[in-house]
Design brief:
It contains 14 helices and twelve strands. The relative contact order is 0.16.
């Protein structure tokens, strides 16, 4: 018996799956793959955080169900972080909640606030959950440009004017995944003013707030804008800041109504993250932040090795001022092949894995995302492999184009 599951049919094939399958096959064959594909931090979690987890887990009282909203100590630690980092005061009881990673928080909030046919405004390209969390919840997505420049507000105004029904929410993510764009407070102020006027919620993903390379201009929070809290909830995470991706601890903070809606959905779905992990996360937020400074320095060094090395071999990529990604235009003559084909060729001929831009939305076509999650030695190795790959570009592209012609001819028969 076959069934068409409604929500599954709304999800397109996962673009990254083809590259991931090739990567797994190559590794099974013993090939050494340099993996810049997934934004999966390779740095170890700082030792004092691991020690707190180890200490806490030995107490059997912590092995019971936890708190779906997050333990009070961790919610207080999050609010203390907002106070010292952004000068934003939050109530840990009403305006903060712990999530099982920011991805889970975004998806569950989508379930809480989205009805069938509700319109959500999402920049394109963007992290997949930003759009598909709402599509899964039976919403409809309208795309906006992602660059926070003078073109954004007019595009937002047009989207609001021409959307029926009126949009429920706007998703923002700066520093942006995958493009690494960074927004400033003047941009946020314009967005908040417009969204307050039209009663549109703002959902901000600030997962990369602490991975920045301009010490004089750290990325701001939209909650710093006066009045933003009336319509805004913001998601953050320990994953990148403290190299804790597998620990699955994130947060939402801001508008009390949105936090309450998220808490209500979560109360039916989970009992919260394992208590010792939450205690360790509180230690991360409350303790010395020197480990974060060291992490930033490592990513900055990797960024420079990658961008400068690829520039020398003929691949010019904008140098990101934040995040752990480079948003790389496909180099000529490969640009005519598209991001998925280029990613597969790079894996096949250079043993280097990247993420095709198409996987982040149709406006990501023409780019690949490179995550600096390998050490500098491995990055230099990748640059050498890419240089050799580029030296055979004419032959490789010609072969691919001829193969496409033959395939098309076979289909017409």
């Amino acid at each position: 018996m076959e069934h068409d599951f409604h929500r599954i049919t709304r999800l397109p094939p996962y673009v990254f799956s083809e590259v991931n399958a090739m990567k797994a096959k190559a590794r099974n064959n013993g090939e050494d793959i340099i993996d810049f594909g997934m934004g999966n931090p390779d740095l170890p979690t700082p030792e004092h955080i691991v020690e707190k987890l180890s200490e806490t887990v030995r107490n059997p009282k912590t092995h019971r169900y936890s708190n779906s909203r997050g333990i009070p100590g961790l919610r207080r630690a999050l609010c203390s972080y907002y106070e010292r980092r952004f000068n934003v005061s939050l109530d840990p009881e009403r305006e903060a909640i712990v999530t099982i990673g920011s991805k889970e928080g975004l998806a569950n909030l989508a379930q809480a606030i989205t009805g069938p046919g509700d319109i959500i405004l999402v920049p394109n390209p963007s992290y997949p959950i930003h759009q598909f969390g709402f599509i899964i919840a039976d919403g409809a997505v309208r795309y906006l440009p992602v660059k926070p420049d003078s073109s954004f507000i007019p595009a937002l105004e047009r989207a609001i004017q021409h959307s029926v029904p009126k949009p429920v929410a706007l998703v923002l993510c700066y520093p942006a995944n995958p493009t690494a764009y960074v927004a400033d407070l003047s941009f946020y102020s314009e967005v908040v003013e417009l969204c307050r006027f039209h009663n549109i919620y703002i959902l901000s993903d600030l997962a990369y707030a602490e991975i920045y390379f301009d010490d004089e201009n750290p990325p701001p929070s939209v909650l710093q804008v006066p009045g933003a809290r009336d319509i805004t909830v913001e998601f953050t995470s320990t994953s990148k800041t403290y190299s804790m991706p597998g620990w699955r601890i994130g947060f939402a903070a801001g508008n009390e109504k949105l936090i309450s809606a998220l808490a209500r959905v979560k109360s039916y779905l989970d009992y919260g993250a394992f208590t010792p992990i939450q205690v360790a996360a509180a230690t991360a937020l409350n303790g010395s932040q020197e480990c974060v400074v060291e992490t930033r320095a490592i990513y900055k060094g990797r960024r420079d090795v990658l961008i400068d090395g690829l520039s020398r071999v003929g691949w010019d990529i904008p140098k990101p001022s934040a995040s752990m990604y480079a948003w790389a235009p496909i180099p000529k003559p490969f640009d005519q092949l598209g991001s998925l084909k280029f990613s597969k060729l790079l894996l096949e001929h250079a043993n280097v894995a990247v993420s095709p831009g198409l996987g982040f939305g149709e406006n990501g076509e023409g780019y690949v995302r490179i995550a600096v999650v390998e050490n500098e030695q491995r990055i230099r190795q990748a640059v050498r492999s890419i240089r050799n790959f580029f030296s055979n570009s004419e032959e490789i592209v010609t072969s691919e184009l001829q193969g496409n012609v033959f395939s098309l001819a076979a289909l017409k028969k």
